[in-house]
Amino acid sequence: MKTVVAVYTGQGLADPLKAVFREVLPDVRLVNIIDDSLIGDVVQAGHIPPGVARRLVQYFHHGEELGADVILNTCSSVGEVAEEARKLIGVPIVKIDDAMAAKAAAAYDRVAVLATLPSTLQPTMRLIEAKAAELGRDVKLVNGLAEGAFEALTGGRPEEHDRILLETALRVAKDADAIVLAQGSMARMEKALAEETGKPVLSSPRLGVEQVRETLEKLSRGEPIERPSFGGATQVCG
């Protein structure tokens, strides 16, 4: 049985992601590492503090020690730390939003990025830009920061969170060919937002788990997994 270790910076996505794993990878042993202080510290600082980066890399090391065949980083806010950690960890790290960003960059010329936190919005936009650059494409990104939605959710007002998110989606949809949900926890609204805006809506959980499955299949076939090396070149693991 293959083992996947999922590292979380908050509680909200763990149960929905378990459901996706049961559907996409039912025979995989899933181990969760959850430290909800991480996203709290990121939100408070407005960026990724060094202490958060250190703790996150430690959790990736713990995942490797737990016997992970693949580690899944589930938080877009710290995706750039996960990218750098690939240089330090001996097993592949899949970022939950990688496949979503690649799909958006390849398929659409104008992409609205919906987020409730600037700390998630900016890394997601940079990731889509990077994917577009790899493809030689020029993709216009539309800022879809849903101000006040995060506070509504953490304040126990989920209906207000959903209302703000929908209003923001309707606003940015006018200037976009598709909408990307920067936070995996938004995936529950994917269908509703697509129906209300009339635009394709992409979310990360299923696409991320499907990328985990593809990575496991490559490992089973003995194919090397590319990852960045120090200095920006590429090395392989596997």
Quick description:
The protein is α/β, with parallel strands linked by helices and 238 residues long.
The level of helicity is 40-55%
The multimeric state of the shown protein is: single chain
- Mean pLDDT metric: 92
Overall structural class, as computed from helix and strand content, comes to alpha/beta
Main beta-sheet annotation: 4 strands, parallel
Structure description:
Pfam families: Asp_Glu_race (PF01177). This is Asp/Glu/hydantoin racemase. GO terms for molecular function: amino-acid racemase activity. Belongs to the HyuE racemase family. It contains ten helices and ten strands. The protein has 238 residues and is α/β, with parallel strands linked by helices. The strands form three sheets. It has a four-stranded parallel sheet with strand order 2-1-3-4, sandwiched between helices. The longest helix has 18 residues, at 118-135. It has two domains: 3-96 and 206-237, Rossmann fold (3-Layer(aba) Sandwich), CATH 3.40.50.1860; 98-203, Rossmann fold (3-Layer(aba) Sandwich), CATH 3.40.50. Helix 1 crosses helix 10 (205-220) and helix 5 (98-107) packs across helix 6. Strand 7, helix 9 and strand 8 (201-202) form a beta-alpha-beta unit. Mean pLDDT is 92; it is low at 228-238. It is globular.
